[in-house]
Amino acid sequence: MKHALTALAVSGALVAAAAAAQAENWDMPVAYPANNYQTENDVAFAADVKSCTGGKLDITVHPNGSLFKGDEIKRAVQLGEAQIGERLLSAHANENPIFAYDSVPFLASSFEASDKLREAAKPVLAKVLAKQNLTLLYSVPWPAQGMYFGKQIDSVADMKGVKFRAYNATTARMAELTGMIPTQIEAADLKQALATGVVASMISSGSTGVDEKVWEDMKYFYDVKAWLPRNTVFVNTDAFNALPKDAQDCVIKSADAAQTRGTAKAASLADGFVKTLAEHGMTTGPASAKLQEGLDQIGATMTAEWLKSTGTDGQEIVDAYKAMK
């Protein structure tokens, strides 16, 4: 009996060791704070994957640029230094302008339009990422982008010389066309940049404004709904292909759920973010007619420039998007 129990114990230990050996542990660097809805959605995605795979794939989310800084995440996943990651792909438009599909000014200015644009761009975007050893999983929008300033702005001319926080090539170009001075600032460094006067304005969602308590440094928010940028989650293709088929299916299923859940959360929070800005003393509201007219002209210029830079790929996205309207 004693020998039998010993044999069972050894057998159980071997089974446990074999299960542990089969388990995959992935790192998922993200650029935003742990309490941001984008990061919370990624944590929920990781929990879904772990549950769906019976613990065979365990993804650890590393928030706020703690494992890799925002501008390092995409390359880290490409090289396999992290297996999966989340990134604002438009920040890499210098690599390929297709990555800025979601930041073309005034092309898609609502959650419904953003979802249609995402679907229209999916085949082209997946093709571009595949060439970089990345597999597209899901993306979640931010609320529509508004403009933050420390002073009242009534026209594009009033922006001249203002120090502006850029987070991708699109925002830098917008700054140039308005006469502002752009400086690239990652999300994790934004608060310090505002507090020290490195920048005094930006275009971003209400979510970022609340996260960073921008009312401490800026007083005006113009809800121009320029575009809805999207955080995109992608996986190293080699790491994904190494998973058994059932685990791959679990990842895809969990990704689809994360995209739906994250989009719904963003939409539910959007108005609340702007309300919170106002409650903390910021002046919020639409742009004046004169300011909006100037921004629309800049948007038309930037749309034409983006289509020229992307060629047939960009036109394919826009044509597919317009066909959905």
UniProtKB/TrEMBL annotation:
From the record, what ranges are coiled-coil? none
- The region annotated as signal peptide is 1-23
> What cellular-component terms does GO give this entry?
periplasmic space
PANTHER family under this entry? PTHR33376, SIALIC ACID-BINDING PERIPLASMIC PROTEIN SIAP (PTHR33376:SF4)
Coarse class of the protein's main subcellular location: periplasm
- Entry protein name: C4-dicarboxylate ABC transporter substrate-binding protein
One BP term from GO:
transmembrane transport
Entry keyword set:
Periplasm, Signal
Family matches, as CDD domains? PBP2_TRAP_BpDctp6_7 (cd13602)
Starting at the broadest rank, the lineage of the source organism is: Bacteria, Pseudomonadati, Pseudomonadota, Alphaproteobacteria, Rhodobacterales
Q: Look up the domain of life of the source.
A: Bacteria
Q: Name one Pfam family in it.
A: DctP
Where does it reside? Answer: Periplasm
